[in-house]
Structures are given as structure tokens and as C-alpha cells.
Amino acid sequence: MELLNSIKKTMSWEAKPTQVATEKKVEATKEIKPVANKIKLGHVHMSGCTGCLVSLADNNLGLIKILDDYADLVYSLTLADVRHIPEMDVALVEGSVCIQDHESVEDIKETRRKSKIVVALGSCASYGNITRFSRGGQHNQPQHESFLPIGDLIDVDIYIPGCPPSPELIRNVAVMAYLLLQGDEEQKALAGKYLKSLMDLAKRGTTGCFCDLMNDVINQGLCMGCGT
What is the dihedral angle through the alpha carbons of 120, 126, 129, 135, rounded to the nearest 10 degrees? Predict the structure, then answer.
């Protein structure tokens, strides 16, 4: 509870504003945030449905606050055509990787090289999700026949599972990544506490639930449908 209250205090849109008597006092209590030290944020789209980006946009005014106070969006092919992947502080990677598409494989490796923090955004990037059913041998699209979660190809720092993840979770991770990179010691400690469980998921990879559901359950014929 103490951690939740600290997070709400850090992110002013979650905290209830203190009522003041006069308009002048309201102006005096407004938080002035520096924008010179904003982090560089990127959205890298692999093989996915763009649902995670839609979920990020569902933050509405919260997203505007992130872009005003915490981050500059420097890369997102869904929003603007950019020829090269730039240097980024935080890369939000959506979707799994088609291993027959050499350009996608190179893009995910370049993303790792150019990013301080790589976030697997959503279940496709984290665990492969439904795309892992494409394991090779399909006849309709032989050039796009098998997919992997990004953690099978590069080191990932943070997993945000969900199909899609909630807008609030994506927003909170973006702000905590900012505090981890730009905050003081107390803020970095707060961010570390909040992100620890998501970092632990990244360390476990596809065995996030202590087994690989695709390899250890579905491919073994142990899944009998939704009732299992």
C-alpha cells in the first residue's frame, strides 16, 4: 500500500489535488516539471495487431502528460515513416518476430543495440502468444512460417504481459522507466520496486508461469481447450 501511495504521489494525475482557497494559491502550488531531461521513447512494431499501441493511446490525457513531461517519442513506424532506428532510452517492442523475415530479425537486434531499456510490450512480444502456433510447415505463407517472442533473440529488460496490457500499466512503466534513468536516488529506488516483478518475468522468459505453456502444455497434447 505504501508503494502504491508513493507511485500515485509521483504521478500527479493519479493523486487527488489539494483544494486551495484562492486562484492565486492554485497557481503557486502547480508543479513545474523540467522538460530538458526527458527520455527518448520508441515504439518498435514487429508481428502484431497494434492493439498494444492502441492501449497506450487509450491513456488519453495521461499519454499527453507522458509526452509533455517525461518522454519524447522518437520512433514509431505506425505513426511516421522513419528510415533508421535511432538511439533510444526506452524501446517498447510490440509483436513477435518472424524468423524467416531477415529484416525483422536484424531490426530487433538493432533495437537492442540502440536502447538502454528494452520492454516487451504485450503477450506477443513477451511469450509469442497466438503467433507461436505458427511453428513451420504452413503452406499458405511459407515465407512467414514461424515466430518467436523477442526474448528468444535478444536480452529483454522488462516484460509487460497482456493482450493487450492495460493502458495504466503501460503508462506506469513508462513513467517508472523515466525515474529509473533520470530520477534521484529515492525515485530510482521507487522505480526499482515497482518494476521488479516485471523485470523478474523478463529473466524467466517464456517460462514466466514456471513452465512454457506452448512447449510444455499445448505441444504435448495436454490442452483440451478452454475448460482445461
Answer: 110
In whole angstroms, give the CA distance from residue 202 to residue 155: 8
CA dihedral 63, 126, 92, 50 (to 10 degrees): -60
Compute the Cα dihedral for 192, 194, 198, 203 and give only its sign: positive
Task: Give the C-alpha separation, 196 to 138, whole Å.
Answer: 39
* Contact residues for 132 (Cβ-Cβ < 8 A; gap 6+): 96, 147, 148, 149, 214
Q: Break the chain down into helix, strand, coil percent, rounded to 5.
A: 45, 15, 35
pLDDT digits (tens, 9 = 90+) for 54-63: 999 999 999 9
CB atoms within 10 A of CB 222: 10
Architecture in CATH of 37-218: 3-Layer(aba) Sandwich (3.40)
pTM for the whole thing? 0.76
Average pLDDT for 96-117: 95
Segment 73-94, tens digit of pLDDT: 999 998 888 889 999 999 999 9
> Which strands make up the sheet holding 88-94, listed edge to edge?
71-76, 39-45, 88-94, 115-121, 158-160
3-state class (DSSP) for residue 203: helix
